[in-house]
Amino acid sequence: MANTGDLFRGCFIKYNNELCQVMEYQHRTPGNLRAFYQVVLRNVKTGKQMEHRFRAGESVEMVRVEFREMQYLYKDGPNLVLMDPENFEQVYVDEALFGSAAAFLKEEMMVKVSFEGDVAIGAEAPTFVVLEVTYTEPGLKGDTATNTLKPATLDNGAEVRVPLFCNVGDKVKVDTRTGDYVERVK
Fold first, then answer.
1. What is the edge-to-edge ordering of all strands in the sheet holding 66-76?
2. Most CB contacts within 10 A, which of 2, 28, 88, 150?
3. How far is CA 93 from CA 90, 100, 110, in A?
4. 0.85 exceeded by the pTM?
């Protein structure tokens, strides 16, 4: 058992028999009260965030979580099939663990997955991906004075808004956290 002094941002603990991740924590020592830790926790299964106040020195149950780099192979219903590049073992991971970033995954892309034992509890796509534009309306010549965006379909089926100068066949960098266009890649 660890105590509240061992907490850090990103660690996993058991709280009310639920697996939670510490999003933020702050050690507070008010003038006339005892010291305490104000902690923001995110429930791994439901995604809900909650605040809790721990006494200084209170025991907490830390959970060991293993992070692995895996290769995305294909989508199979509500699951994504990932492969461990070291032993070629295939694992089915729920698409919901990736959140909105799942729309930007492409075959053979490397992703990070966190496991508690053999159960996947979290997944993270790369921050930026480079994808090719397969369809977009042509931009009009001279229509670049404003920062106007137009819809574009990418080679994995995702849709993003790109500037008017982007055409079919261009490669664009997309931020998977927000789904926004970043830049055109040569």
1. 90-94, 79-83, 66-76, 110-116, 119-124
2. 150
3. 10, 15, 14
4. no
The residues, any chain, with a CB within 8 Å of residue 54's CB and separated by 6 or more, are 4, 7, 36, 37, 39, 60
Q: Which residues of the chain have pLDDT under 50?
A: none
Tell me if residue 89 falls in helix, strand or coil: coil
Contacts 24+ apart (CB under 8 A), 48-55: 49/23, 52/15, 54/4, 54/7, 55/4
Contact (Cβ atoms closer than 8 angstroms) between residue 174 and residue 182: yes
Contact present, 181 and 172 (Cβ < 8 Å)? yes
Q: CB neighbours of 60 closer than 8 A, spacing ≥ 6?
A: 1, 2, 3, 4, 6, 7, 13, 14, 15, 54
- The CATH number of 66-124, from 1.10.3110.10, 2.40.50.140, 1.10.10.10, 3.30.420.40, is 2.40.50.140
Please tell us whether the domain made up of 2-63 is placed in CATH 2.30.40.10: no
Task: Please tell me what DSSP assigns to residue 35.
Answer: -
Interval 100-123: pLDDT, tens:
888 899 898 999 998 888 888 888
